[in-house]
Amino acid sequence: MKFNKLIPELSVSDFEKSLRFYKELLGFRVEYSREESKFAFLSFNGSQIMIEQTKSGWLTGELGYPFGRGVNFQIEVKSIKPLLSLLKANDYPVFIEPQDNWYRQGDRLLGNKEFLVKDPDGYLLRFFENLGSRKLKSRK
Fold first, then answer.
1. Torsions phi, psi of 75, nearest 5?
2. What domains appear along the chain, each with residue ranges and CATH number?
3. pLDDT digits (tens, 9 = 90+) for 57-95
4. How far apart are the first and last CA of the chain?
């Protein structure tokens, strides 16, 4: 298994609940786990994260819902429809409904069809499918 250069590790308040969310509602795969430590290394379409039951020794401050304030994790998928279907089938709320967004990169616009969902601890996940790119219209 190849490890990404950056792999976020999320402290979670309820390991079993979070593991169910990532596995059953989103389709993440457990690459390996340490049940005795309430830890799992997860992957999804080339993305990797770790989840672990909150440990007091690693906390830099008091945790309060929503965890991860100020950060969102962007995850590319081939299509967002299957994820939205799983969330809907499980009556799990979407934080920001699907929308097309175009982001400038130099003289090009990169398109994403994206939606955002909070995990059980409030970590914000932004799933997107690539809409391609187009030339930025010049201003005259």
1. -130, 120
2. 9-54+68-133 (3.10.180.10)
3. 677 778 888 998 889 999 999 999 999 999 999 999 999
4. 51
Number of Cβ atoms within 10 Å of the Cβ of 116: 18
This model's pTM is above 0.85: yes
In this predicted model, what pLDDT tens digit does every residue of 7-36 receive, in sequence order? 999 999 999 999 999 999 999 999 999 999
Rounded CA Rg of the chain: 17
C-alpha triplet 107, 113, 114: angle, nearest 5°: 115
Q: Per the structure block, which two tokens stand in for 37?
A: 């430590």
What letter does residue 26 receive in the DSSP assignment?
Answer: T
Nearest Cα to Cα of residue 101 among 139, 73, 128, 78 = 128
